[in-house]
Amino acid sequence: MVRFLLILISFINFSFGDFIVNSDIEKIDDFSLQYHYDDSRNLDIDEIQKITFDKNISNRFAFGYIKGDSWFKLTLYNDSQNEDFILYLTEPFFDEVNLFEETLNGWKIQESGLTVYLKYEKQQDIHPTFFFKIKPNSSKKFYIKINSKASNFGKFELYSQKSFIFRDGFNLYWFYFGTMLIVLLFNLFLFITLKNRIYIYYVGYIFFHTIFIFVFSGLSFYNTTLALYASQLEISVPLYILFLTLFSNNFFKTNIYLPLIDKILKIFMVVLTFLIMLTFISYEPWFAISIEFATLFAPLLIIIPIYVLIKGHQEMKYYIVAILIYVISMIIISLMTEGVIENSDFNHYFFVVASYVEIVVFSFILANRFHKIQDEKIKIQEELINIKDENEQILQKKVKDGTDDIRNINYQLLKLVKEKELLVKEIHHRVKNNFQIIISLLSIESFKNKNRHHKNFLLELKNRIKSMSLIHKYLLNSGKFNEIESQEYFLNIINEVKMVYSTQIININQEIDSYILNIEEAMSLGIITNELLVNAIKYHPSKENNKKECNIFISFKIVGKSITLIVKDNGLGFDRDKISEDGLGLDLIGQFTRKLKPNDTNDNFTFNNGTKFELTWFSSSPPDF
Prior knowledge:
Elements: H1 2-14, E1 18-22, E2 27-28, E3 32-38, H2 45-48, E4 55-58, E5 60-64, E6 69-79, E7 84-89, E8 96-103, E9 106-112, H3 114-120, E10 129-133, E11 138-147, E12 152-160, H4 171-194, H5 197-216, H6 224-228, H7 230-233, H8 236-252, H9 254-257, H10 259-281, H11 283-297, H12 300-310, H13 316-337, H14 345-367, H15 369-401, H16 403-448, H17 452-478, E13 484-485, H18 486-500, E14 506-512, E15 516-517, H19 519-538, E16 550-559, E17 562-569, H20 584-596, E18 602-607, E19 611-618
Helix pairs in contact: 4-5, 4-14, 5-8, 8-10, 8-11, 10-11, 12-13, 13-14, 15-16, 16-17, 17-18, 17-19, 18-19, 19-20
């Protein structure tokens, strides 16, 4: 009943901008203040006392881009034994924040904000922080004056001094910036290597987006020079939207699928570029106008990919998920900074999390384009065969015309074949190197990441990429461009897995027939075998009891046109129906099994003293021993 009465009293006081500081409270972050907006910016503390504050607002406020002064009135009653308190403002970008404290001799003023910070640079924390005293069982009245050139949103928090700690942690943001740097460098490398404009558009998007997050987080204010240009740095917002539109327009291929929309987007980019130039000349009012203009066109980034997906561009489904989350978060943060919706933790930080997810997903989509290089390589090989056939026909005809013409054509033919072989070899070399870069990036991220679940996920992803890179490494070393010998290939996969899990007791026996695999067969078998080996080791009881060895048997047999792959372990088995829907390993096995031979494959798991996977399919060509 006492607690209920205290809550009721606090609620009544909140409605008038007054509240009681209870002895059990070390931090208060949910209360109300009285508010008055001074558009003229001429009111001082003596005049503001005569004004009736008729509007109550939450301590979480968002007014948007306003030019005048915001005045807050607050009356505190101290019902505790503490007398030292702190009023803290969570956002650092306000130009002027002054606290007027009522005393017996008049009003005591504490000045804070960027203007004071840049002048003295003595604060431990750049966030406006005010220290004051209230004797037990007494009350005190405060007025707070705020002015900002940027968006006016923030949150007041009240602490007892003994419970207050100056904020020094931006670990989440530093992790964000580290990831963005890796992604930026990776895409810059792709642009230099592939000379494709979509990568430089994406680099520009990441760069300006990271600058905005740098300002948004408040880190830019810790440097005096950067703090002076905090408002100008916000120009990164329309700039990263411009580069996102350039990237998306190229990615959507609107010039092919939607010519009319392509023209609209180009007009939008021209107008946005013009508004950005005006913002450089005069920050107000062009910055707010450019943000509102960009927000108006944001839904197009969702509508267009849906239409392109319907038209058959399957890569769009991943883009839609990422951009949907991102655009929603962008609309939310825009509405919050404009003062349309409330300032809450969700509205405040959802944009940062969503943008991180969106950028990482986009990076994986771009990395996936490496797989298309393989298809292009196969086309080059087919062109080589066609060219060779054509030149052989020409050669036969020239033989009849004279020996000199034959030698000349033969020389030209050999030169062309050598050039094509060199080109294919270069493709294998680049693909292998690019896979190695991805593996190295994953190793760096795994080393930095302290989360065990994330480290395991990165390790599994790295193993999958390694199994694909082995193909290109093998082809590069062998000198053959479309033939992979099964015994050597499986042995390389087994050795790679053993190296990763070298701390466990693992015995892998194999019976591998010699067989010439093509690239498609090798890629699918490599992924399937890698997933089966990793799962057999990962979920084996030896992980908890080192006395029990992990025994694995691999069989690859050829009988006529029938090919059978068997992987068996001595683990505990598993219930396939109870495997989580987000289990990527089984999904990969299923997808690459269907890709191997979509019409005549037969695969199944059995459980008898362990797990046994058996896959049988029929080769379209006779085995080559």
